[in-house]
Each structure stands twice: as C-alpha cells, then as structure tokens.
Amino acid sequence: MTRTPAGPTATATPSPEPATGVPAGAPAGSSAGPAASPAVAVPEPEPAALRLDGVGLGYPGAEVLTGLDLSVAPGEILVVAGPSGCGKTTLLRVLAGLLPATAGRVLVDGAPVAGPGAERALVFQDDGLLPWRSVRRNVELPLALRGVRRRERAVASAPWIQRVGLAGYERHLPRELSGGMRQRVQLARALVAAPGVLLMDEPFGALDTVTRAAMQDLLVRVWRRHRTTLVFVTHDIDEALHLGDRVLVLGSAGAGPRGVVTVPSPRDRAAAATPETRRVREELLTLLDAGAPAPAPSEPAP
User: Fold this and answer.
1) Greatest CA separation found in the chain?
2) Nearest 5°: CA angle at 257, between 252 and 260?
3) What are the DSSP calls for 227-292, one per residue?
4) Please, what is the angle between helix 135-146 and helix 179-191, to 10°?
C-alpha cells in the first residue's frame, strides 16, 4: 500500500446525423445513398498521459477545488471519490475540455487542453443515447461526426457492438433496451473512435447490483484489450478498489484533495477479502470521513 499526497504529484452528446446507413455486415462492395466523401482513417487506440499542475476547479469566486497537482500514466485507471459537491464531475469536464480550469494547466501528452478533442471521450451516468437512432447508429455517431464514410462506420462499429455483448441488437432503439444494455451502447460509442483517454462519471451508479458488477467486469475486459487511460468517478468504495490502480480522494468543496491511495490488487475480486485490501479500504474511508463536510449543528430543544 502506498499513499501519496494529492498536492505534490494524479466527449459530449453530439447533434444528430441524417438517418441513413448501411446495415451491419453488409457486403464490402455495397453502397447507400449518394457518393461518399474520401475515406477518413479511424485511429488505433493510443493511451495518453494526463498531467494537472496547480489546477483550480469551479467558477470565478466559487472554486470547489484548488491546487490539484496530479499525473496519470498512459493506460492507468485512476478512480476519483469524494463527497457530493467536491468537484468530481467538474474535474472530468475540465479534463474533457468542456470547462476551463480556474487556475493552473491541464495537459494531455504534454499538450495543453484548450477545448474538447477526439483523443478524449466522456461517459455520463445518463447514457445520453439518441432515441431515434438504432444501437449501431448510436455507436457510429462519433465516426460520423469525424466524416468517416458510412460503410467504414459500419465495419468499425460491428466489433465494438460484439465486444460489449450486443450482437443481434444492432437495429434496436434505446427504448427497447434495459439500463445495462444502454450503458453498453454508450461504452461502445465512447470507444469506437479509439480515444486515448476515457472519462467516466458514475456510469454504473443507477444500475442494480448484479448488472453493475457485470458492467464492471465488461469494462475491465475491454480495458485489458485496449489499455485506454481511464479516469472513473464513483461514490462506491468497493467499486473504486476493484477498478482503480489508484484512488484520488477529494475533500468537501473548498477543502482540496485529501490524498491518493494505491490499490494493492486492482481488478481482482478475490483480493477484496485480503488483509491488505481491507486496510486500504479503511484508509479510504478515513480519508472520506475527514474530507466530508461537518454536519450542521442541531437546534437546541425547546
């Protein structure tokens, strides 16, 4: 077990596309609609490094976090935990380039983050699927926005639909899917364009216990194959211990980071009962209790 202080060294729903496309599995020579533009290559995954130097989060005059210095290695899974309102979601939005930092700088592979970029994908608790698009066409959407041709989108999306266990559901609409299945579609949509960084904001928080565990296992299988750098927000300590290489604990709004804890045996469910993991769990609970806001004083009895 290793703990380091958080101070010294830790894409959004797009607009719809016209409703056309080639069915999954169509012959290589098939065509649909008018002539397509020149082919646009779909990149291979390339895990990216993240660095935050003296980063402040929030809004002018209302910062929720200050002085965050953190490095995340390529291919690492960093879990972020903390009480409500501590800046977890704001941190993801700053990393995604949807919000500016109020102080400091955010770097991806050494380049400053100045806005959203194709190398970063953001997954929300609400799946955000477009209800009029089928499973396949929701998964294809990031490629469509990049100008990838229809036939190539179908070819690129098919293996991702299979990897998340939705083969046979390509033509289904979101309303025809369970909550867990919709999250699988969102995961495939986030990864189909091969981002170097995947940012996940409590994506399994609304799922039942069994489905949540299944989605955690699916995420681990996909990550082991592609090793995308992953920043994952959760309120669940056991989820944090299962998924994360390290856990960043944030304090209540304005309190700053509490610390970064290294997980002894990440992604090994059998390790949950080991003495080392139990000690780390207690350490995380202590940090979370220390970072939680103090309870409001009770009113004196009349």
Assistant:
1) 82
2) 130
3) --EEEEE-S-HHHHHHH-SEEEEE-STTT-EEEEEE-SSTT-GGGGGSHHHHHHHHHHHHHHHHHS
4) 20
Tokens (6 digits) for 257: 């980071």
User: Tokens 């999250």 identify what position?
Assistant: 183
pLDDT tens across 177-231, in order?
A: 998 899 999 999 999 988 999 999 998 888 888 988 999 999 999 899 888 999 9
Region for 54 from its dihedrals, namely left if φ exceeds 0, alpha if ψ lies in -120 to 50, beta otherwise: left
- Set out the domains of the chain in order of their start, with CATH numbers: 1-10+44-119+196-291 (3.40.50.300), 129-194 (no CATH)
Taking the alpha carbons at both ends of the chain, their separation in whole angstroms is: 50
Q: What is the share, in percent, of the chain residues with pLDDT greater than 90?
A: 55
Cβ-proximal residues to 43 (8 Å cutoff; 6+ apart), any chain: 193, 194
72-108 pLDDT per residue, tens: 999 999 999 988 888 899 999 999 999 999 999 999 9
Q: What is the radius of gyration, based on Cα positions, of the chain? A: 21
pTM score above 0.90: no
Residue 155 CB partners (closer than 8 Å, separation 6+):
none
DSSP-derived 3-state class of residue 187: helix
Q: Strands 77-81 and 62-72: what pairing? A: unpaired
Q: Is the pLDDT of residue 233 over 70?
A: yes
In single-letter form, the type of residue at position 295 comes to P
| Of the candidates 207, 264, 256, 258, the residue with the CA atom closest to the CA atom of residue 236 | 207
What is the H or E stretch that residue 77 is in?
strand 77-81
Residue type, 129: L
